[in-house]
Design goal:
By secondary structure, the chain is an alpha/beta fold. The protein has one domain: 2-enoyl-CoA Hydratase, Chain A, domain 1 (Alpha-Beta Complex). It contains 17 helices and 9 strands. It has a 6-stranded mixed beta sheet, sandwiched between helices. Strand 2, helix 2 and strand 3 form a beta-alpha-beta unit. It is globular, with a radius of gyration of 20 Å. The two termini are 35 Å apart. The mean pLDDT is 95. Its EC number is 3.1.2.4.
């Protein structure tokens, strides 16, 4: 599964402008900028170099294509490697590279601006959602669809979701159902975006960034510029009036079975908007692997509690979340559900995966807890570089 270094450099391009703006351009449009392990490593290499370069004052991340910022990890490549060798080193490499990069982005010492134009899913959210400035457009489509391929919503999304409305319920709803966020108003409501700027203004915004004085206070200069270009969404958030229902169905204290039961009750609500939403949420859950749904619920609830208590719990910090997700990623990607999910959704596209186990009722809670346990060998854990700025 090795990728030629020349291809990686073509897919992840970098440049540094005279005013100190460094730019990462994702340029793998045929794959919707799906990120493989080598692309991720190169991306982090750029960020690490710029972090200590006094001539670089800010970072802009963009796509060469209007269709997608990034659709996520190159899961087909990982699945193919796992099929060849269940113990392939690509698995820890792919997840490890992603999660180390996310930690670097979350604590980046310089302004980090992401143009989240087009499809921004999975690792696409990981590359943007942990950054300081997150620009969404009317073309932005946000989603975490990993349960549908037998994995789980990773890339530290649980860390982000815990801060969403309803004490994290809206983010948990998005993660468990794979629901797509398609309006700028909802992207801002969830906190996934910081600024809504129409796509027609992106080019002029980029030119303004290229000519801005970033030498003294780059954070202030960029925020002022983004505030100048941003506009208010033309509509109200679709999810805001649904918040009571979302909280009642996706609260941290509810199990997957509780959530399904609550949604069935809301499906017959006299409020047609609530009933329609509940029906859609149930359909989203039905697409997910039962084991993945249970992992997701357990993980997201634990992070919500940890962040709410603001204690020394490892899960209250992004590094702790990433260490846990590394265990989950390594273990779920070698379960039969992952290969089957990729086959059904991305290869054969019959949309009829045969999950193991096949229902929520058949899930052993001991098996769920086991994937969260530390590895027997400490050296197998995710090692996050000490160079991350805290």
């Amino acid at each position: 599964m090795a990728v030629a270094s020349s291809s990686v450099q073509e897919w992840v391009k970098s440049s540094v402008i005279a005013n100190g703006l460094a730019i990462v351009t994702l340029d793998r449009p045929k794959a919707l900028n799906a990120m493989n392990a080598d692309m991720t490593a190169l991306y982090k290499k750029f960020l690490d170099e710029w972090s200590g370069n006094n001539k670089v004052h800010a970072v802009l991340v963009e796509s060469s294509s209007a269709r997608a910022f990034s659709a996520g990890m190159d899961v087909k490549g990982v699945a193919a490697a796992v099929q060849e060798d269940l113990h392939t080193p690509l698995v820890p490499k792919a997840f490890g590279n992603e999660y180390k990069l996310i930690c670097a982005i979350a604590h980046y010492p310089k302004p980090y601006v992401a143009f989240m134009d087009g499809i921004t899913m999975g690792f696409g959210i990981g590359l943007s959602g942990h950054g300081r400035f997150r620009v969404v457009t009317e073309r932005t489509v946000l989603a975490m669809p990993e349960n549908g391929i037998g994995l789980f919503p990773d890339v530290g999304f649980a860390h982000i979701a815990a801060t969403t409305p309803g004490h994290g319920s809206v983010g948990t709803y998005m993660a468990m159902t794979g629901a797509k966020i398609t309006t700028p108003a909802d992207a801002l409501y969830l906190g996934l975006g910081t600024h809504y700027i129409p796509s027609t203004k992106l080019e002029s915004l980029k030119l303004a960034l290229l000519h801005s004085d970033l030498s003294s206070n780059a954070f202030h200069a960029i925020e002022t510029l983004l505030d100048t270009y941003k506009v208010e969404p033309e509509t109200e958030p679709l999810l805001k009036p649904l918040l009571p229902a979302i909280t009642a169905c996706f609260g941290a204290n509810l199990s997957v079975a509780n959530t399904i039961e609550a949604l069935k009750q809301h499906q017959v609500s006299a409020d047609s908007a609530v009933a329609s939403w509940a029906k859609g949420a149930l359909a989203g859950l039905a697409k997910g692997a039962p084991f993945s749904l249970c992992i997701t619920k357990h993980h997201f609830a634990a992070v919500v509690v940890a962040r709410a208590n603001a204690d020394n719990d490892d899960l209250s910090q992004i590094e702790g979340v990433m260490r846990t997700e590394f265990r989950l990623g390594v273990r779920t990607s070698t379960r039969p559900d992952f290969i089957e999910g990729v086959r059904a959704v991305l290869i054969d596209k019959d949309q009829k995966p045969k999950w193991q186990p096949g229902s929520i009722e058949d899930i052993d809670t001991g098996d769920v807890k086991a994937v969260f346990a530390p590895f027997e060998t400490p050296a197998d854990e995710l090692m996050i570089p000490d160079t991350v700025v805290l």
